Amino acid sequence: MDKKDTFFNATDVRWMAGDVEHGDIVMSTRIRLARNLKDYRFPRAFSEDEAFKLDQTISNVLLDAETLDQHFTHIDIATTPILQKKVLVEKHLISPQLAHKDRSASVVISDDESVSVMINEEDHLRIQCIEPGLDLEKAYFNADTLDRYLEEYVPYAFDEEFGYLTSCPTNTGTGMRASVMMHLPALTMTDQMEQIISMMPRLGMVVRGIYGEGTEAVGNYYQISNQVTLGKSEEEILTDLQSLAEQIVQRETESRKALLDHAETIMNDRVNRSLGTLHYARILTSDEAANCLSNVRLGIDLGLIENIPTKVLNKCMLVIQPGFLQQYVGTTLKPNERDVYRATLLREILNNVRQREKGDDSYDV
Amino acid sequence: MDKKDTFFNATDVRWMAGDVEHGDIVMSTRIRLARNLKDYRFPRAFSEDEAFKLDQTISNVLLDAETLDQHFTHIDIATTPILQKKVLVEKHLISPQLAHKDRSASVVISDDESVSVMINEEDHLRIQCIEPGLDLEKAYFNADTLDRYLEEYVPYAFDEEFGYLTSCPTNTGTGMRASVMMHLPALTMTDQMEQIISMMPRLGMVVRGIYGEGTEAVGNYYQISNQVTLGKSEEEILTDLQSLAEQIVQRETESRKALLDHAETIMNDRVNRSLGTLHYARILTSDEAANCLSNVRLGIDLGLIENIPTKVLNKCMLVIQPGFLQQYVGTTLKPNERDVYRATLLREILNNVRQREKGDDSYDV
């Protein structure tokens, strides 16, 4: 398979691995650095020629990289079909904004999908490094290494007083957004999320849904990230977010234990009904599917559901999304057709698990 | 097993057989005759001595019956434990009113449970004959045969002008209530039941839920019976009810076809989700269980669900009821305990079907 096809089709994503520290609650950690080159105007203002030249310059630096431990692939946005761009968005490899660009814009992705560099999005460069579980240190180390490497070849727009200059002033300073994706079903069920979200601004943090800015928390997934990029060092931001994530992990853990201690039958009923819906429904919206998968994940974490590998759940989480679903079926589908196909696909995946569990290896998970 | 124990435990009831005319829509047909003896005061007014004597007289006539093709068992109400009385009510062998009697009252039941005679309920005698499917002719023939037989030994209170005299004037005349129990999920889903129910009084008919007077239609089961007993002959009542039942069967059949033609996926989703709930829920109220079973029955009738025998569904319908459930577990349970036990029992029964389907005969349906 061509490497590009892997990005568009593979569901076995490294950062969804899960068997890492706090992997049952923190799905992934992400570091994003916004950078702009000194000798170019910002994307909002520059010409098509500048955009093209910049895209070529940066991607060549990355593709030729020999000192980095990674191999990269360049994907041009304008020539990528819309369905495949949707898949890249759903895999968090590019932003929805980049997907909509109609002139020289691209993404450079490492083979294991842990690094992606968007070129000519809101800023010239958006370096993204993602790691499974709670691992700000490693994600930052990877981003920082790549950042230093790039800076050797392409001088950045940097101001002694303000730090890295960006298109949007909210990113100026460190240009860094550090985020953790958390699965918080127990805090959601026990109505504690509102209180947690309300304390975020005081901590300079912000909570979003799984698909970034402006989207609601579907399936009890919350993305927590720093709001402030100016006046705080990278180290301070990482320390604060680490501390906050650990506190939330602890509260979620306590809530799960309390639910299990005081309402085990109700929890057992809830998570198994969701599993039943995934096994039996013939029509499933992406929201309902996400919520059922969230309950099943909780059921596995609580020991109430057995024999469903995390890998399978992660695959399900990806394939319920519209882009992936249509990429799978190989054609565009209307929303109601998607709901039927989504239900069919989930039934197939879960039945394959059941068959495999019974020792029949002819089925592919 | 003692014959009485069979009545309290058996779930394989002949009148739930189902493989009869219109058996997919009409569950059963029932004829009830109210009779009083000439030489006794009505139950509302008579003494304990009279009640006792009457109970003995009638039950002896039935137990000694040699000309009838049936063998009967006498069950005294006052000495029957409450749980077992609940089961008899749930099997429609006695009325809730009889179950609450604290003096000489009894029921005489035929071995196949198709005939039951309540003694000293509201009237001295309530003869009930039940048949599977739509079969007013046979049910009436059986009731009439037993009625004529009894009249030879115990003279009835009969008035040339009014007909059979009863405790409640609404039964005076023929003393007959003919009823059919119908499963009408398609008419319910398409909001046609209200209109059907509203036309009943003009036809001298009435619609009730599955558990008789004053109960709501649970699980889309409706009991349709004649309201009028005076001024109409038995034959007229039977002809009118037969005609009405056939019309409703036709409308239900048309609605099912329309649902399948125009909304097959939605129906498939609905009936399978219900099957999923029965397979996976850990807490099930009797109402939810009845509604899920109704959907599964519809799914079987429409060919959307396979491999669940009607016999198993009928068993499920019986065991979800509080009395049966507690009789099964052998002890009284609080309502929330019943909901958990109900879910467990249904999962077991349905899993046994699945095992058996796979050729493993060690499981008992």
Automatic annotation (TrEMBL), chains A, B:
<feature type="binding site">
    <location>
        <position position="92"/>
    </location>
    <ligand>
        <name>ATP</name>
    </ligand>
</feature>
<comment type="function">
    <text>Catalyzes the specific phosphorylation of arginine residues in proteins.</text>
</comment>
<keyword id="KW-0547">Nucleotide-binding</keyword>
<dbReference type="InterPro" id="IPR023660">
    <property type="entry name" value="Arg_Kinase"/>
</dbReference>
<dbReference type="InterPro" id="IPR014746">
    <property type="entry name" value="Gln_synth/guanido_kin_cat_dom"/>
</dbReference>
<feature type="binding site">
    <location>
        <begin position="208"/>
        <end position="213"/>
    </location>
    <ligand>
        <name>ATP</name>
    </ligand>
</feature>
<feature type="binding site">
    <location>
        <position position="126"/>
    </location>
    <ligand>
        <name>ATP</name>
    </ligand>
</feature>
<feature type="binding site">
    <location>
        <begin position="177"/>
        <end position="181"/>
    </location>
    <ligand>
        <name>ATP</name>
    </ligand>
</feature>
<feature type="binding site">
    <location>
        <begin position="28"/>
        <end position="32"/>
    </location>
    <ligand>
        <name>ATP</name>
    </ligand>
</feature>
<feature type="short sequence motif" description="RDXXRA motif of the pArg binding pocket involved in allosteric regulation">
    <location>
        <begin position="338"/>
        <end position="343"/>
    </location>
</feature>
<dbReference type="InterPro" id="IPR022414">
    <property type="entry name" value="ATP-guanido_PTrfase_cat"/>
</dbReference>
<dbReference type="InterPro" id="IPR000749">
    <property type="entry name" value="ATP-guanido_PTrfase"/>
</dbReference>
<keyword id="KW-0021">Allosteric enzyme</keyword>
<comment type="similarity">
    <text>Belongs to the ATP:guanido phosphotransferase family.</text>
</comment>
<protein>
    <recommendedName>
        <fullName>Protein-arginine kinase</fullName>
        <ecNumber>2.7.14.1</ecNumber>
    </recommendedName>
</protein>
<feature type="domain" description="Phosphagen kinase C-terminal">
    <location>
        <begin position="25"/>
        <end position="255"/>
    </location>
</feature>
<keyword id="KW-0418">Kinase</keyword>
<keyword id="KW-0067">ATP-binding</keyword>
<keyword id="KW-0808">Transferase</keyword>
<dbReference type="GO" id="GO:1990424">
    <property type="term" value="F:protein arginine kinase activity"/>
</dbReference>
<dbReference type="Pfam" id="PF00217">
    <property type="entry name" value="ATP-gua_Ptrans"/>
</dbReference>
